[in-house]
Amino acid sequence: xxxxxxxPARPSPPSPAHAGPVHLRRRLGAFHLWGIAVGLxxxxxxxxxxxxxxxxxxxxxxxxxxxxxxxxxxLIFSYTELTTSIPHAGGPFAYVLAAYGPVPAFIAGLAxxxxxxxxxxxxxxxxxxxxxxxxxxxxxxxxxxxxxxxFMALNIAGVSIAAAFELVVTIAAIAELLVFMAVxxxxxxxxxxxxxxxxxxDTFTLHAIPGILAAAPFAIWFFLAIEGVAMTAEEARDPQRxxxxxxxxxxxxxxxxxxxxxxxxxxxxxxxxxxNINDPLxxxxxxxxxxxxxxxxxxxxLGLFGLVASFHGTIMGYSRQIYAMAREGYLPALLGRLHPRxxxxxxxxxxxxxxxxxxxxxxxxxTVGGQPLTAGIVTxxxxxxxxxxxxxxxxxxxxxxxxxxxxxxxxxxxxxxxPGFALVAATLSLLGMAASNPAxxxxxxxxxxxxxxxxxxxxxxKRQAVMEKGAAMH
Length: 474
Prior knowledge:
Helices cover about 70% and strands about 0% of the residues. It has helices at about 30-40, 50-85, 90-100, 100-135, 140-155, 160-185, 190-195, 210-215, 215-220, 240-265, 280-290, 295-325, 345-360, 375-400, 415-435, 440-474; strands at about 365-370, 370. Helix 4 packs antiparallel against helix 14 and helix 4 packs across helix 16 (about 440-474). The chain is globular, with a radius of gyration of 22 Å. Keywords: Cell membrane, Membrane, Transmembrane, Transmembrane helix. Its main location: membrane.
């Protein structure tokens, strides 16, 4: 029976080459955690979100983004209470295990893995697309695969190195987004921004509402995975203090950048030309400064910092989620091993990378519900996130009732309204997305059902083996 996440986390099995158990190491301060929180997400400001214009138009997408930003604000305040009460590398898996037990916990953990494992291939393909703008002879897929090799190795090399790198590239990415907004500002026109802004119409009608709802996954992409900083709770110094600081500063930073980039990019020309591409910011800048401007080359190069920050951060996130579930016996034990020298979950890092390589090289052959694979895996990642959000928010209410004695260094303001809003918004977003993206939801449901079915069978087999062993001893 897996250990309760409310008890001290069990160490990883010792390596044969190491005399004792290997532990995750507490080396991260509030500034590092802020860098991880923003870095996990900041690629969402560079690409992915513009697909939402196709469904909702620019003005419709503003409405979608406002609703999603409110949901994430409520979610992060609520999530902070869970993370500081149960500072466990398993994140939502640990919260749901404490509240509901093993099977719901596995569902939450698997959904989080889907979110964090499916996001990196989309980001890696965007990295390849950015490099292809600069060097047309460079294959986008080869560049994406190379990014996986480099950043998996960096993550294995140690959490201090990885977190310091994440902080540097995140700051550079923020600076570059500010430069982008300043450079395109002279070419901004409100008329460009509002033209056909309501799902292809200049005026709002009820026909715009389905598009506003369908654009939800791409607005969520602006904030997706900020909760992943919870996966580093066992590596944070004084997590009850540093994690709330990182969460609150992180969500404020991301909201300011998201709205600034979205509005400025849409107002510099024909926003429809940017709606279905992986590199909207360089293309928007091209329309203002021309192809020979040094600003475009600067944006391509420095824009890579944003993509790299999120790519690197999501590798950190998925590896900790896989590691924590394997350590507790919910995934194969091999995935719960830490490197004997660096103390990093090397097996979990490599396992998620294998999924990424399959997605990258399947891009030219696969569509999901008529969407390009990049848009499809963004949608799949969002399905995983929303499933996990619903279960995590439910866990918060249940733990308040079941464990009123649980030490809570941070209590969500406005309880129960704020977490209730987050729960309802996440549930409605999940249902709305399922209705708008039936093919992607069917694939996601099949992945989840297969994983849960295998988990239940494995538990039953293990329970039966224990009973048979006990009977044999008697």
